[in-house]
Amino acid sequence: MNFPKNLPLGVSLLAITLFAYTHAATFDIINQCTYTVWAAAKPGGGRRLDQGQTWNINVAPGTTMARIWGRTNCNFDASGRGQCETGDCDGLLECQGFGKPPNTLAEFSLNQPNNLDFVDISNVDGFNIPIEFSPITDVCRRLVCNAPINEQCPTELRTPGGCNNPCTVFKTNEYCCTDGPGSCSPTTFSRFFKERCPDAYSYPQDDPTSLFTCPSGTNYRVVFCP
Questions:
Q1: Sign of the C-alpha dihedral computed for residues 119, 123, 126 and 129 taken in this order
Q2: Which InterPro entries does the record match to this protein (predicted)?
Q3: What is the spatial distance between Cα 162 and Cα 218, in angstroms, rounded to a whole number?
Q4: pLDDT tens-digit profile of 14-28?
Q5: What CATH number does residue 93 fall under?
Q6: For residue 179, is it within any domain?
Q7: What is the Cα–Cα distance from 13 to 7, expressed in whole angstroms?
Q8: Pick from 93, 114, 133, 164: which is nearest to 226 by CA?
């Protein structure tokens, strides 16, 4: 991008800054649960959130394959190392990678074709915490998954602190869709998740009913226990 050479330095820097943040997004991550949640974001890191606390992160324009999730029953030492019962990310408070299932996910890719963000809630990695993923202003759809899935979880999928997706348990193409597009279809287990959270992915190829768009430049909130 070219700027006029006779602009004052401060004006030039302001223009560059405004350009750099075009279509960046802010995320307000809020814990409304009655228990502590250790929020995690990739990119973003991690933060302990007691009931009522909020963590704000800024995500660069063009970020893809990003996600936010919550971790439960964590213990970390002064150096930020420890372990969580659900959603653990390599034993780090400040996550650098993805979390260990089960964990309910808010997923997004910013500034995609046609100036759109792609957003979704996913139970493909199972479920641990009810979640809302919504725009700060009313420009696109509010997504929510707050059913009592942990309490109603099928016996085969039960695990401490959450409900596994069947791919995690059985590791077959029927549930994981590892053989490529069109290689799998809904199952009894995926229908369990879909019936309770119609907005959320229930298996990897559940795109038609689970992937949504918002205008690029939208700011978002992620709420645990909405």
A1: positive
A2: Osmotin/thaumatin-like_sf, Thaumatin, Thaumatin_CS
A3: 31
A4: 433 343 445 689 999
A5: 2.60.110.10
A6: yes
A7: 10
A8: 133
In 3-state terms, what secondary structure has residue 201? strand
What tokens appear for 222 in the block?
């992620």
Q: Encode 57-81: b = buried (16+ Cβ within 10 Å), e = exposed.
A: bebeeebeebbbbbbbbbebeeeee
CA distance 145 to 138: 18
Give strand pairing partners of 121. 106, 200
> How far apart are the C-alpha atoms of 123 and 147, rounded to whole Å?
12
pLDDT in tens, 169-194: 999 999 999 999 888 999 999 999 99
Strands in the chain per DSSP E: 25-31, 37-42, 45-49, 54-59, 66-76, 82-86, 105-112, 116-122, 131-135, 143-145, 158-159, 162-163, 200-201, 212-215, 220-224
114 falls within a domain:
yes
- Alpha-carbon span 219 to 124, nearest angstrom: 24
**Does 178 reside within a domain?**
yes
8 A C-beta contact, residue 172 and residue 183: no
pTM (whole model) above 0.85: yes
Could you give the maximum distance between any two Cα atoms of the chain, in Å? 70
7 in any annotated domain:
no
